[in-house]
Amino acid sequence: MNFETLVFYFLASILLFAGLRVVTARHPVHAALFLVLAFFTGAGLWLLLEAEFLAITLVLVYIGAVMVLFLFVVMMLNLNIEKMRQGFWDNLPLAAFVGILMAIEMTLVLTVAGRTVGSASVSHAGGYSNTKELGRLLYTDYVYPFELAAVILLVAIVAAIAITLRRRPGTKHQDPAWQVSVKREDRVRLVSMPAEKKGE
């Protein structure tokens, strides 16, 4: 067992522990912080696979943006934790069954992939860029799934805006078309008044 394998098992054990604590932590802020730890260890695993671009993207996008947003939302909403935990034990058998089923599926996928692919590491040349290779794969072999994912995300954004958009009667709003079409004569009125003399 070499040093790289030891680092892999160390990071993988931390990732499993953090993922378990995400779903078992009582406080939402603690669960979000454990999710940050899981993302960091996941980025370490990406580094072991020589995927530096994906690792730094995971750190910058998910930890630097998404998780900060989650933490702000969780801390500002003042959630009722006891009300959220109602029905936890009622749904535990179904959740445990689904979790065990997913673990069996992942084990089967890893064992089949280990037999077909093998565990030999691939060495790359000095000028190899995994960012360039990822872009080449996305825009050649996987261009249609990539575009399909982009369309689905666009539809999700439009749907989220449509769901949260509410027309409230009595609220003041602006009409940009009416503001642009206004002329000077509609706003300014010149009044001709005779001059007044002092003493009159």
Structure, explained:
The structure is a single chain. With 200 residues, the chain is mostly helical. Among the domains are: 1-80, NADH-ubiquinone/plastoquinone oxidoreductase chain 6, subunit NuoJ (Four Helix Bundle (Hemerythrin (Met), subunit A)), CATH 1.20.120; 128-163. Helix content is 72%, strand content 0%. It is built from nine helices and no strands. Helix 2 (28-48) runs antiparallel to helix 3 (52-77). It is elongated and about 110 Å long. The N and C termini lie far apart (110 Å).
Topology, pairings included?
Blueprint: H1 3-24, H2 28-48, H3 52-77, H4 81-84, H5 88-117, H6 130-139, H7 143-164, H8 176-181, H9 184-187
Helix pairs in contact: 1-2, 2-3
